[in-house]
Design brief:
- This protein is an alpha/beta fold.
- Helices cover 38% and strands 24% of the residues.
- It is built from seven helices and six strands, in the order βααββααβαβαβα.
- It has a six-stranded mixed sheet with strand order 3-2-1-4-5-6, sandwiched between helices.
- The protein is globular.
Length: 206
């Protein structure tokens, strides 16, 4: 089997600030982004595949797997991942926003990941951390030193974008993508995934 160039873990915010309609826009938007030709081209731009997994998060003990680790080696693999995410049920809709706990949970998921050259968390959110420990403590106490973190912030709130930029993203080339609202989630996720998974020269990798 070819080497895996990236283990990409998608983390979707389903805290109480996300209503039922917005949750569906988020899931359907992610599924549509995974099916977009430019995103599929980025995933399949190298013989070394990307491993993909996904979970939803909200409160400190409220995380649920949406997609187990799987190698995205063909368009059919991406279509299957999109279908699973699109059809996934929401676990809770009444919990706060525990970003630190979401990152800690992600560290555990990476323990089951395939061996890849890079590991990246792609976390979306529309609110500030308001329960549990902050991201800084997650990075200090969980095995995330070699894991990059990018963010997709929903809403044009400057305070929120600044919070994610200063407290959540980390690693070389880490970035914040923004969506104006949940109607804009698909566009922002397409742009974000294309940037994250495009094949790069080996010299640029950690």
């Amino acid at each position: 089997m070819d080497a895996c160039r990236l283990a990409l873990l998608l983390a979707l915010d389903v805290s109480s600030s996300v209503d039922a309609r917005e949750d569906q826009l988020q899931r359907q938007g992610l599924a549509a982004a995974l099916s977009a030709p430019e995103v599929q081209a980025a995933f399949l731009s190298s013989p070394e595949p990307v491993a993909l997994a996904a979970f939803e998060w909200s409160g400190r003990y409220a995380q649920s797997t949406l997609l187990e680790w799987d190698l995205m080696e063909t368009s059919a693999d991406l279509a299957q991942a999109a279908t699973r995410i699109s059809a996934s049920p929401r676990m809770r809709d009444d919990m706060p926003t525990a970003i630190g706990y979401a990152l800690g949970h992600a560290a555990g998921i990476f323990q089951q990941a395939p061996e890849c050259w890079q590991q990246t968390i792609d976390i979306s959110g529309d609110g500030l951390n308001n329960e549990g420990f902050p991201p800084a403590l997650a990075y200090r106490h969980f095995p995330l030193a070699d894991v990059g973190v990018n963010a997709l912030v929903v809403g044009g709130n400057r305070e929120l974008v600044t919070f994610f930029a200063e407290n959540v993203i980390k690693g070389p080339g880490a970035f914040v993508e923004t969506a104006r609202n949940y109607e804009d989630f698909e566009r922002a996720m397409r742009r974000k995934l294309e940037r994250e998974v495009a094949s790069r020269p080996v010299g640029e990798l950690r």
